[in-house]
């Protein structure tokens, strides 16, 4: 399944590295990355692919929350369908 | 996918209180009818706990995967007056107890359907159910009750209207929150996922998943960007926002239905407020242009809002149902409470507002010494608005023992808080004491 991981917060050294390492350790493949500074905030979107069909999102979310605290950013992951449903016909 | 669209969704959820208000599983209990009430209750417990075993877990999974809060997981069942009528029991408290127990066993927030449909008269079980209501409301935790006293096709059953005034008074004597779980309807709908008025209609399938979306904060935020522009622009903006919100509800509902292997029923396109700051329907009306909710122009703004929400939502999902419109509960909406405190909003204005939105006089604390006949007359007025205008109306008023007008009452949690509101002190006793029925209006004869 495809999911979109968003990272928003104050720019600093090591955000992309930290997030990428975390995903690699969980065998989550990054399909696409875009990164920009929006209203002064570091904003990164990643399209990722999760192979395991019975993947437990609550464990992943907890892990991302911890990582986000360490890096001083907010990291969220949501399955891609929700964005498609809301913004595409 | 464009970055700004993704950011928009994230803002809606994180800052504007966008959520799925409820996933409600409707379960038919018609196959649980038994002349032995113990056996009937056993069947009811087994059916509910089997069908809804995974409801809460699936809801939590969807929340985690899609990052969208699902505030309530609920169950609605066939009106119990139909199920219990086959037994010779004189009191239906036992049925409510088993519903409460089943709801707790599967972990849902509420179970609705301790209900009777009496718009044209009482059948065997109806009056027994109504008499059981005060005890059920006071002594069960999760059971929601409703009584339909009128419809456009049948007119208004004024015997039931008179009886319900007394029931509400009796329930208020027992507990301050009892009446938060009781709705008196005209033109009740059979697929409503919202409490306290949800029940599973007899025309529905055996089991079904209905979804209620919400998001007053999202609409308010969208309107902040069109300040001062013509009302056509306001309507267009609400439509577009409602579309997005409803698409999210449709997605969540269809995933829930698939995982629970139950047919997907409807999306209820209601804007339902909570007492949280920024989650208010009244705030939208004020953003449209009234200084305080309740002042002149409020009804017009609400009519526009209600209609635009429907138009935006209707294309966004496969089937629309339930109440679908704006809810205007007083105690559950911070800006409504502020409107009452500022003296801008009163019961009479609320009644006018119910003529153009999806429900009725909702979550209104009134003085504890309000006569039963006055409460019945409030119900009759609302039922008349619903009957004549071909729409659902409802009454959920809360007499508060020992409290006078202006005193604050706290109901707790999503039920919120509100000052006691004044009701008209002139008597309606002679009207209610006549009993009988108000005939169906001429425009009901459509065959």
From TrEMBL, chain B:
InterPro entries: UPF0210. SUPFAM superfamilies: PFL-like glycyl radical enzymes (SSF51998). It comes from the Bacteria. CDD domains: RNR_PFL_like_DUF711 (cd08025). Homodimer. Belongs to the UPF0210 family. This is UPF0210 protein FD21_GL001974. Coiled coil: none annotated.
């Amino acid at each position: 399944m495809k999911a979109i991981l968003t990272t928003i917060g104050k720019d600093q050294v090591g955000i992309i590295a930290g997030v990428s390492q975390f995903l690699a350790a969980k065998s989550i493949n990054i399909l696409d990355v875009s990164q920009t500074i929006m209203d002064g905030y570091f904003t990164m979107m990643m399209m990722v692919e999760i192979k395991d069909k019975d993947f437990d999102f609550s464990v992943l979310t907890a892990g991302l929350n911890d990582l986000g605290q360490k890096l001083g950013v907010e990291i969220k992951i949501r399955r891609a369908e929700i964005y498609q449903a809301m913004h595409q016909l | 996918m464009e970055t700004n669209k993704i950011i928009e969704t994230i803002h809606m959820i994180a800052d504007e209180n966008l959520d799925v208000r409820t996933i409600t599983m409707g379960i038919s209990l018609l196959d649980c009818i038994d002349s032995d009430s113990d056996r009937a209750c056993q069947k009811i417990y087994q059916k509910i706990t089997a069908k809804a075993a995974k409801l809460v877990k699936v809801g939590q999974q969807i929340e985690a995967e899609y990052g969208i809060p699902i505030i309530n997981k609920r169950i609605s069942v066939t009106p119990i007056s139909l199920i219990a009528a086959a037994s010779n029991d004189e009191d239906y408290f036992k049925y409510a107890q088993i519903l409460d127990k089943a709801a707790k066993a599967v972990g849902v927030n509420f179970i609705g359907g301790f209900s009777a449909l009496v718009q044209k008269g009482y059948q065997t079980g109806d009056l027994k159910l109504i008499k059981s209501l005060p005890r059920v409301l006071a002594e069960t935790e999760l059971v929601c009750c409703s009584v339909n006293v009128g419809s456009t096709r049948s007119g208004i059953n004024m015997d039931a209207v008179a009886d319900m005034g007394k029931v509400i008074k009796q329930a208020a004597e027992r507990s301050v929150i009892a009446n938060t779980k009781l709705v008196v309807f005209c033109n009740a709908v059979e697929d409503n996922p919202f409490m306290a008025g949800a029940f599973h209609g007899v025309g529905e399938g055996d089991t079904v998943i209905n979804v209620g979306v919400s998001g007053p904060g999202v609409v308010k935020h969208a309107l902040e960007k069109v300040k001062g522009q013509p009302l056509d622009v306001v309507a267009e903006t609400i439509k577009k926002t409602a579309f997005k919100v409803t698409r999210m509800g449709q997605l969540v509902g269809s995933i829930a239905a698939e995982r629970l292997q139950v047919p997907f029923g409807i999306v209820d396109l209601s804007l339902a407020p909570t007492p949280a700051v920024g989650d208010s329907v009244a705030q939208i009306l004020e953003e449209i242009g009234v200084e305080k909710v309740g002042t002149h122009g409020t009804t017009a703004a609400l009519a526009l809002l209600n209609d635009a929400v429907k138009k935006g939502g209707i294309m966004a999902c496969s089937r629309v149902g339930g109440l679908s419109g704006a809810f205007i509960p007083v105690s559950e909406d911070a800006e409504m409470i502020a409107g009452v405190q500022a003296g801008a909003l009163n019961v009479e204005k609320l009644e006018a507002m119910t003529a153009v939105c999806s429900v009725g006089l909702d979550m209104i604390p009134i003085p504890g010494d309000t006569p039963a006949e006055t409460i019945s007359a409030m119900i009759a007025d609302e039922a008349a608005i619903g009957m004549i205008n071909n729409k659902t109306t409802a009454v959920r008023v809360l007499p508060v023992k020992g409290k006078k007008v202006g005193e604050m009452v706290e109901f707790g949690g999503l039920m919120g808080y509100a000052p006691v509101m004044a009701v008209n002190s002139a008597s309606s006793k002679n009207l209610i004491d006549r009993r009988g029925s108000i005939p169906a209006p001429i425009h009901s004869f459509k065959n």
